[in-house]
Design goal:
Layout (H helix, E strand, L loop, with lengths): L15 H4 L7 E5 L2 E7 L5 E2 L6 H14 L19 H9 L4 H16 L11 H4 L12 H14 L7 H12 L9 H6 L19 H31 L8 H30 L2 E3 L5 E3 H35 L6 H10 L20
Antiparallel strand pairs: 1-2, 2-3, 4-5
Length: 362
């Protein structure tokens, strides 16, 4: 049986070992011949890894925020850019034997998941030195005591156990019957436009301790990416679950659903930790203070404003660069391109992010 232990609902402090505990499973999850994290209970339902205490802990920290009169940050789903190609475009390509763009997209997703392991390397400063109010019994106090490590293991696996990288690869390979992987995927990712970045980015809050600013910046960015990933999961599940274009609709679609379930605690601990910091007062390096709300809202607003504009452009430009060549395998590439373009989604970023800076002095 799975998960034999529960944490007390009012408990707020946990050891790293507890936050990394998965419990046992009736059956393991095997993806592409690799033993991956998580598994299935006696009913056949998938159970995410490292949730014996992590799930109850996040719920307890969220409840404490509410008791203290503070809300959770909410990133609107309206800000989530659509996937390119969209579901209908992806299915159209696959029905016409144009597999390379979809193989490329799924491979990029798996590589990005593997990069998620870098979150374990994020340095957490002495929060007692830089935060006026206590952080005892919060998600913030557990970032380097299990939360970052659990997140890293979920994404890239741990030791002999696979993670989301291997699970996305398995979904791709079962659905598309072990397709040939474009050899330039990683090179193009590393040499791409960088999401519109130009040179070295300026620090949005240079008055903060640099280690604290880097940590909060990483948390905000990863939180946004995880929220936006919901669209990627929906796209992957709908495409790979379609028996007309997928050789293994149940297995491939189910694998994406498993990954999707694993991502929920990532979003929840990050938005909880950011909300905790938003409710506090931060000391600056010159001995003054700044409201946590000013910092967190400022980081989220800047990133959301940029990402809602750069992500759709970057995805489209990356695909169009090789689309013409990929379509040469079709019987009528010109007609296929016209049909593909006719299915394109029209999307305009919302005018506001929900985190616009206040006009009042901090």
């Amino acid at each position: 049986m799975s998960v034999a232990t529960e944490s007390a609902p009012d408990r707020l402090t946990f050891t790293p070992q507890e936050l990394l505990e998965s419990g046992s499973y009736e059956e393991p999850l095997i993806a592409g011949g690799v033993r991956c994290h998580g598994g299935f209970d006696s009913t056949g339902a998938y159970r995410s890894p490292r949730m014996v205490h992590r799930g109850p802990a996040i719920d307890a920290w969220k409840s404490q925020l509410a008791r203290d009169g503070h809300g959770l940050i909410e990133i609107s789903k309206a800000l989530m850019p659509p996937q390119y190609p969209n579901v209908d475009q992806a299915k159209l390509l696959l029905r016409n034997g144009v597999r390379d763009p979809i193989v490329r997209a799924l491979t990029i997703i798996s590589i990005v998941e593997g990069f998620g392991a870098v979150i374990r390397d994020v340095k957490v400063p002495d929060l007692g030195e830089w935060v006026v109010e206590s952080v005892e019994g919060t998600a913030l106090a557990h970032l380097d005591k299990g939360l970052f490590e659990a997140h890293a293991r979920d994404e890239s696996g741990y030791r002999e156990e696979g993670g989301h990288k291997q699970m996305w690869e398995a979904a791709r390979d079962t659905a598309l019957e072990n397709p040939k992987i474009p050899g330039d995927v990683l090179m193009r990712m590393m040499g791409g436009g960088g999401g519109g970045q130009r040179g070295k980015a300026e620090r949005p809050f240079p008055q903060l301790d640099p280690t604290l600013e880097r940590m909060l910046t990483m948390m905000a960015r990863v939180c946004i990416v995880e929220v936006f990933a919901e669209g990627t999961f929906d796209w992957g599940e709908r495409v790979l679950s379609d028996g007309e274009v997928s050789a293994a609709p149940d297995a491939a679609g189910g694998m994406v659903r498993n990954i999707r379930a694993d991502e929920n605690p990532h979003v929840e601990y990050l938005r909880t930790g950011l909300s905790e910091m938003r409710a506090r007062t931060i000391r600056t390096v010159d001995g003054k203070t700044i409201a946590g709300e000013t910092v967190i809202d400022g980081l989220l607003h800047g990133m959301l404003h940029e990402m809602t504009r750069s992500r759709p452009r970057d995805q489209r430009e990356d695909l169009r660069e090789s689309l013409g060549e990929a379509m040469k395998v079709a019987s009528n590439p010109k007609a296929l391109l016209e049909e593909f373009d006719a299915l394109e989604s029209v999307w305009t970023p919302p005018e506001t992010t929900g985190f616009e800076p206040s006009t009042e002095a901090a």
